[in-house]
Task: structure prediction
Amino acid sequence: MCLVRRGLFRHTISAPAFSQRSADSSFTTSSVQQFGAHKALIGYYASYPNGELSQSGDIIEHFSRFRSSYSNKQLLPSKTDRPKPSAERRLARPSQDPSERRFASYVMSKFPLKLSRMVLDEKEQQIRDLLVEACTDIDARESDRKEDLVLRFTGGWVRDKLLGQHSHDLDVGINRMTGYDFAKKLQSFIARHPQKYDKMMQGIHKIEMNPEKSKHLETTTTKLHGIDIDFVNLRTETYTESSRIPDMKFGTAEEDALRRDATINALFYNLQTQQVEDFTSKGLEDLKNGVIRTPLPAFDTFHDDPLRVLRLIRFASRFGFHIEDEAIAAMQHDTIREALQQKISKERIGSELDKMLNGPNPSASMKLIGIAKLYETIFTPLNYGVKPSEVGSSTEFANLRFIMQRLLTSDKPILTQCDLQDPYILKLVYLYVALQPWHGIQVSQKFETTFLIVRDSLKLPSSLGTTISGIVKSAMEAANFVRLPEWTRKDAGLFVRQAGRYWRVVLLCSLASDIEKQLGKETQYFPLVHGPVSAAIERYLKLAKFIVDNDLTNAWQLKPILGGKEVMNIMELQKGPQIAECLHKVIEWQFEFPDKTRDDCVKYLKTLKLRAQTDVMYIENSH
Result:
């Protein structure tokens, strides 16, 4: 296995023979990192799954040649050699700015890929053999059948297998019976051959149609050799104007392929012939070239089921592929955006967005949402009568995303203690990017607008809404705090305590917003190493260092050294808001005098009490 680091995100790639050749000085892990080998290895894995070398020249020599042609810092070929995509395609691809360059598509164009060959691992081969033998047995028992049983592995498993990635489950398409009927017959077949297949199959579970949960067809699940298997019949579907829930009927393999959301997801592996089938005639080529394309006209595909817009964005960001021009244009169409609002439940939209945010490249997902003009469609509070002039700025969203990407991928250390390999941290960062434009736009007296968008518009957990709303609010306050001429330990401790567990994320987000406000329309061209941006970065780094140096990184966890009852007794107070005020005074004192004890704190409170009594006496005497 080879861990290829791409920017801040790591991908696990199955690369046979890599370990055997890693000692070769001309092919090192660093060269894999430089040249986007996570895609070039697709062809190597598919063509030579057992690690044997090609007679026409092996992949190592290709990489050696590329490595000698380009310096470590030059991640793209010269402009004269580089393909010139259309304007729309340039938008759909990862940005060509220094922080987002991708050499992978260029490398892939240099390799003759043979994606149609596939080798199953041991468990997959045993499952395939069992299913094929069961088909033969079932056919033999049904003399009146109109056609033989044909089984196919479908969808994501085929795509991932060709990409050299592991898939956790298998979808099996059946040509002439339902998944449940086949599973029952398979169960009977195994029961008749206990010595050969004993304990290979677990119980079957029938899942009824549930359109609200995007289950549009009855499926049957089981486990074979510990691998999750879904059985479902091949189908064709028809949509109505008002719903994304289709009318399903038995269909051919070609009809089943054409109904899918993307050509790369429409590839089948025929278990009988042991061949990859590409009924769209574009799936293998698109997988090879890194293209996201719909099998049928994009507008019709999205209009039938607008959720496919978000699915394609998710796949493009997950694999680093670009979305072809027709699909981008269809995504931007007003009719499609309206259909996404009207036909798709907020739960489904939130689910797709959550997968993007948890994926390997949430920045690319956010960028494509902006390109598809879906910002207002996705990130708008429900049922509050928000006027168009009050909607969060999609321009600010795009600028913040670009700035955040620059900060996260720059060579300059930005808040290095922030664990940016943690997917949840990146999720918070890019939710901030999406929601910060709504800060200050109040649609409810009770809740922050950012909280309402997370809870109601995206149907994500309220706890996440609370967290991100706190980050948005604290980031705005941090922008003022960081500009103070100097900080005391007490003030810095109170800042961290208010910002909470994710105070480093707060600083990073505040810095991005600070830069966005400074640059405005010039966002796309800002340098990190000099000028006002560099000065802002230094301010935030200085504050982060001050917090670390003063042992305040966990200040958000600090509890009062004295309890509420103790404070009540010392200060001779009744229950009420004064207790909270006194406890806050205790926290301030602890930040200011970290080495002092409980007894010292008691003396401090008694001093406060005496001072308060003196003030009261003075006021009374003055009257």
In short: The mean pLDDT is 78. The radius of gyration is 30 Å. The chain is about 50% helix and 10% strand. Residues 598-622 form the longest helix (25 residues).
